[in-house]
Amino acid sequence: MKITGSYPKTRLRRLRKSKWIRNLVSETTISSNDLVLPIFVREGKNKIETIKTMPGVKRYTIDKLHTILNQVQKYKIPMIAIFPYTPDSKKNSLGSEALNPNNLICRSIRYIKKKYPDIGIMCDVALDPYTSHGHDGIIFNEKIDNDRTIKILVKQSLLQAKMGCDVIAPSDMMDGRVGIIRKALDRKGFYDVSILSYAVKYASSFYGPFRDAVGSKSKLKRDKKTYQMDFRNVSDSFREVALDIKEGADMVMIKPGMIYLDIINRIKSNFKIPVLAYQVSGEYCLLKEGIKKKLFKEDAIFESILSFKRAGACAIVTYFAIDIIKIIKNLQEK
Ligand code: PBG
């Protein structure tokens, strides 16, 4: 790219001199259409519980979900991602609770689809909320066994689809699962159920607060580096996305977000598929802490979410989804 012009004929500040002209030439926007809100559900009745490690984020019993879903509806957020907090008594080494048609996720999907049919539901496919060891797959001969795990993930996907889940999101990082899940969904007639593959998921320290929110942190022995990606690598991300597209993914996720904007940008430039990004729990906590300590204002949230759009993401999964819309409304009114 050739940069032309020079001072004093060219003055870049002319395009920054007032709010209207800045708005006129702005290249990127965020609206509620670009957001996905993760929601944590728990067993029991009449409870909205704070999560110590994630200030401002709550766990809801199903009968209290309306308090948050009414906001999702009001602010026109297209999709939510639901995550279960599973009691220890329901965990085992095979994560069997994942396949219980009456588990927390299944009951939540049924409730939400009945009461809020226009809100899209995305569900993780992975075993970590259900395993006694906190891993996304099952352990065989002391290893996370890829092919044995996929057999369970396929059943988990079919069950979620049957309950009414719109978007199946495998977040487990087993090889080959997207193709096998797509085939199984089609065989059962679930042609309209989408697959949003967590194609690019790095083994990150920034998932810590989430693991606490779903109750898997204290269970987890060893890290997830034999299946989640090595953050020193870029080429893996191209291979993961290419394979998942070939296997039938409709959309791909990149995760974490803020410190992986280079990856979002490269994937967006190289593949013609919707790219979503996940601003994960650790990123949320960092921003939240900075605001609490008055190191910066809430506008920092807007800036961080906008950077995902600028990098090329079509949507962002973020615990700030509702806050962002309020901030946008405020900015418009100013
Ligand atoms: C589970 C899963 C994780 C997240 C989403 N799905 C954690 C992990 O892989 O350990 C992280 C989300 C966040 O940190 O906000 N497979």
Would you mind describing this structure in some detail?
By secondary structure, the chain is α/β, with parallel strands linked by helices. It has a single domain, classed as Aldolase class I (TIM Barrel, Alpha-Beta Barrel), CATH 3.20.20.70. Helices cover 37% and strands 17% of the residues. The protein has helices at 19-25, 65-74, 104-115, 146-163, 177-187, 208-213, 235-247, 261-270, 281-292, 299-311, 321-333, and strands spanning 35-42, 48-50, 58-61, 79-84, 120-125, 139-140, 143-144, 167-170, 194-201, 251-255, 275-279, 315-318. An eight-stranded parallel β-barrel has the order 1-4-5-8-9-10-11-12, surrounded by eight helices. A two-stranded antiparallel ribbon has the order 6-7. Strand 8 (167-170), helix 5 (177-187) and strand 9 form a beta-alpha-beta unit. Helix 8 runs parallel beside helix 10 (299-311) and helix 10 packs across helix 11. The structure holds ligand PBG. Ligand PBG is lined by residues 124, 126, 128, 136, 171, 207, 210-211, 224, 280-281.
